[in-house]
Specification:
This protein has 465 residues and is of the alpha+beta class. Among the domains are: 2-37 and 395-449, conserved putative lor/sdh protein from methanococcus maripaludis s2 fold; 48-57 and 309-393, Elongation Factor Tu (Ef-tu), domain 3, CATH 2.40.30. Helix content is 38%, strand content 33%. It has a six-stranded antiparallel β-barrel. It has a four-stranded antiparallel beta sheet with strand order 6-5-3-8, with no helix packed on it. The protein is elongated and about 175 Å long.
Length: 465
């Protein structure tokens, strides 16, 4: 009985093993149509996109820092305030400022007053006109002296008159000397001697003057004198030209050079005064406020951050494989991890022309602008960016999950009469889910297998391994 029981147990075990083996053999060598997921190849539209991630930034941003030491007197803004260019955001107490900044206020007022006087006063023009008149007179005198070197200094009549006067004086001196000789032995206090001597002396002095005049009007200047007169004449002409130029500069208003000098002084003084305050360099929104009234500050200490939030941008890195498909003006969609369930639109506004190597890969930076942003989108957020690079319509499409590579060629498997049939395809543009079929044997309406096995047997069924 024991032997029979063992035989029965053995038969049962063998049968079980055979049944399990048949099950697996059958599973590997048959493929009922119901095991395959299929979809008919159909025509449709395709949007090819390039995806990347980046960080939102403002169109313009600035970190504003103090440029001098002092104590904060007032802070005029808070986080979220909109400010205009040149608005004062905070300033230091005047009593806490360095001396050069305090004195700059005096320099500023002085330069402003001088500029105002220059622009309204007529003194400069009057002085310039007087200078021209004086220069013209000096030129005329210098010209006469120079030109007088080439002709006689007096007419013949004038010379004859002077000579006659000299002859008369000589006769008078001769008579006066005779008179004096009559009284010269008298005491010095005698009035007759004193009168005779005075008359003789006066006549001799007059004779010397006439001799000098006669010598001058009958003589000629030497070469050195002529050269000196010519130099004086040339200098007088140059001085007149300078005077006329200065008059021309102020004829219709103040001298441009003087105006520029005073304006530069005003600008320099104002720049020094501005060290005591923080001024907005552009229109934007205050995003960081550091100082409080009473704080002691020093050069370089951060005070505010200012962002222009009217334009929000995202810089993303695009592979060299895709960069030539990116162009300015292409539409963009964006989503944010911090903003669930909402998609935003954008546009490509800049495409980098030079790539950079990061970990062996060449990437190009492109910039996209958010076109329908709202208050929930903020600088610093991470954005998932999809750029529409191509859109095709009414083309034959095939799901990406159905495509395989066999012997270096792309293929799909089509279900025919319940069996998978390998079909070659040539693909064009692709999206995340489908690709454009631009060649091969696939036809519209073919049942494309979405989940083909990795290998197939020689009869079209699944191959065993």
């Amino acid at each position: 009985m024991k032997i029979i029981r063992n035989i029965i147990i053995g038969i049962i075990v063998i049968g079980a093993i055979a049944g399990i083996g048949y099950y697996f053999w059958n599973a590997n060598n048959t493929a009922p149509q119901g095991q395959y997921q299929t979809t008919p190849a159909a025509r449709g539209s395709l949007e090819a996109t390039v995806g990347a991630t980046g960080t939102v930034r403002a169109n313009q941003a600035a970190l504003l820092a103090w440029e001098t030491t002092g104590s904060v007197e007032s802070v005029r803004v808070k986080v979220g305030d909109r400010v205009k260019k040149d608005d004062v955001l905070a300033e230091l107490a005047k009593t806490s400022l360095p001396q050069n900044i305090i004195l700059a206020e005096v320099d500023l007022l002085t330069a402003q007053r001088n500029l105002e006087d220059l622009q309204t006063s007529t003194t400069a023009r009057a002085q310039a006109e007087l200078a021209v008149t004086q220069a013209e007179k000096a030129l005329k005198e210098a010209k006469n002296k120079y030109e007088g070197s080439n002709f006689a200094r007096a007419s013949d009549t004038k010379i004859e008159n002077v000579q006659s006067e000299l002859d008369l004086l000589n006769n008078q001196i001769s008579q006066a000397r005779k008179v004096y000789n009559m009284f010269k032995d008298l005491p010095d206090g005698d009035s007759r001697k004193a009168g005779a001597l005075s008359n003789l002396t006066s006549l001799e002095l007059r004779r010397d003057q006439v001799v000098a005049e006669l010598n001058y009007i009958t003589g000629r200047p030497d070469d050195n004198e002529v050269s000196q007169r010519l130099s004086n004449y040339e200098i007088a002409k140059a001085q007149l030209d300078d005077a006329r130029l200065r008059l021309e500069r102020v004829q219709d208003g103040p001298d441009d050079l003087e105006v520029a000098r005073l304006e530069a002084q005003i600008t320099a003084a104002q720049a020094t005064l501005d060290l005591a305050r923080i001024i907005a360099p552009f229109e934007g929104t205050i995003t960081i406020v550091e100082p409080l009234p009473g704080d002691q500050v020093s050069p370089g200490l951060q005070a505010f951050r200012l962002d222009d939030l009217t334009r929000l941008l995202v810089d993303v890195q695009i592979s060299e494989i895709d960069i030539n498909n990116i162009n300015i003006g292409q539409p963009v969609t964006m989503s944010f991890d911090a903003i669930l369930g909402k998609t935003y639109d954008g546009i490509v506004v800049s495409v980098g022309q030079v790539g950079s190597v990061v970990q062996g890969a060449v990437n190009f930076t492109i910039t996209v602008e958010l076109t329908n942003g709202d208050a929930t989108v903020r600088p610093g957020m991470t954005a998932a960016v999809n750029i529409l690079v191509k859109e095709v319509k009414d083309v034959l499409l095939v799901p990406n999950r159905s495509v395989r590579i066999v012997d270096g060629e792309r293929v799909v498997y089509v279900l025919m009469d319940g069996l998978p049939v390998m079909t070659t395809v040539r693909l064009g543009s692709s999206s995340d889910s489908v690709s454009e079929v631009v060649g091969g044997d696939l036809k519209e309406g073919d049942l494309v297998i979405l989940n083909p096995p990795a290998t197939f047997g020689p009869m079209g069924g699944p191959g065993g391994n």
